[in-house]
Amino acid sequence: MLTLAxxxxxxxxxxxxxxxxxxxxxxxxxxxxxxxxxxxGVVPEVASRKHIETINQIVQEALDSANVTFKDxxxxxxxxxxxxxxxxxxxxxxxxxxxxxxxxxxxxxNHIEGHVCANYIEFKDLEPPFTCLIVSGGHTYLIQAxxxxxxxIVGRTRDDAAGEAFDKVARALGLxxxxxxxxxxxxxxxxxxxxxxxxxxLEADSYDFSFSGLKTAVLNYxxxxxxxxxxxxxxxxxxxxxxxxxxxxxxxxxxxxKERKMxxxxxxGGVAANQGLRTMMEERGKKEGIKIFYPSRILCTDNAAMxxxxxxxxxxxxxxxxLYLNVEPNLDLS
Amino acid sequence: xxxxxLDTSTMIASCAVLEEDQVLGEYSLNQSKTHSENLVPMVKExxxxxxxxxEEIDIYGVAVGPGSxxxxxxxxxxxxxxxxxxxxxxxxxxTLEALAYNLPYNETIVPMIDARRDRVYTGIYxxxxxxxxxxxxxxxxxxxxxxxxxxxYDEVVVNGNGxxxxxxxxxxxxxxxxxxxxxxxxxxxxxxxxELTLKKYRDGYADNFYSLVPEYLRESQAxxxxxxxxxx
Lengths: 334, 232
Ligand SMILES: [Zn+2]
Fold this sequence. Notes:
The complex is a heterodimer of chains A (334) and B (232). Chain A is of the alpha/beta class. Chain A has helices at 33-37, 44-66, 85-102, 111-122, 162-172, 179-187, 212-228, 234-259, 275-288, 297-300, 304-316, and strands spanning 2-7, 12-19, 23-31, 75-81, 106-110, 130-135, 140-145, 151-156, 264-268, 291-293. With 232 residues, chain B is α/β, with parallel strands linked by helices. Bound molecules: zinc ion. Zinc ion is lined by residues 111, 115, 136, 269-270, 302 of chain A. Zinc ion binds at residues 111, 115, 136, 269-270, 302 of chain A.
């Protein structure tokens, strides 16, 4: 079964052709990052304009590099939300027109679910159940995946998403947007014990996260150093900050996996590309006898292949949308 | 030659099908459901009722603006996808020109679309040689600026949601020189887009489904702010 999938939830225009939910025949991603960088972040109206300029070209490239035509496609998948409303609308409008005119079933996909499904593409034998940590610029969820489309949200952020905290700290350090990858790189050359930033573990039994206190602590530290006229070692700040984030993410993930007697922890979302997170998870996994899964870097970014995978698994379970499908900018996992 | 045209520039979603010089159907809805939800089901309903398959459409037309940025993109994305699948020609029509086309009069025709904060998207048109002729290209103006301009004319016909919104101001400034459109010709209807699409196609004009984009007439706020910053 061939799925043509479209993803336009933020600043990447992407289309992909996926076979049986697991095999990528093509995954074309056009990033707008250079355009948004000069604004210091994603500008929704600018993103929407760029999406409509490129969407048909990207779809055609996805078909061409998969060596198929519209006639070969069996299913249309599209990101329904969460995301920027204007950006999502380009993908949804295109996908609905395709599904109708080609007479194909349509599945509106939860973007966060898509990130989880990136792992089904990466690991052909991976099957639920597993514990999954989803971290990106917009989301931080700790979930228990009980089936391919059955998720239980056990923990979530109460304020900033983990990736958001990276971006804000990066901005305070005068680093370019997006901040996550830059901090990750700098952290590799810094001393993670140089500064003792707080770890917000919250209540003893809580799986929720909170990163705004940590962000404030970093800002306070930077201001104090400046006032004292003392040098700020960017690498050390990056390493100490990143470690504070990772300690919480890793600790809670393992606590949940053990509580649910899982032998697998799956990482998903943009921050799953973070080298520090991957290394720390794997080291701890070895000690605890828990296997760690994370997608290759390209599948960690926003991409249509993961949406195609999620569309396929939803379709298989009869979760099909109709032509009235609309965007859900605040869609939650459920 | 069958034309399918859409207009989603304003709150009204409109879909029309034309065959040569005959109207096959038009469906326009002014309601609160969003265009993204309704548009494709609307197209399906019109075609189903006409017993037509979408494959039978030869040319696609779409109102490309000015208008609601989001609305325009929904219409344009939808039509681009149709044209793409069947590799058919697509033609983008100015929303203001299509509005002016509702009014085949020899006077000065001034369509107006609300652009918020007392501004309107507008242009000046007249009827010439069986079609709409552009006198002033689409632009965005403060309503009073536009009326300053229009005071010099003897007879003016206005339509569009901007003319409804600013009806009292327009009346008080232009007095008996101005005529307002009937309701049927007051909104952005796909039938006018379809007719203009067919005319332009016969004149040898066509857009490309890859490159067709809305004509916003205004940069985004962020782009304007950035320009200001760079000029400093
Ligand atoms: Zn994402």
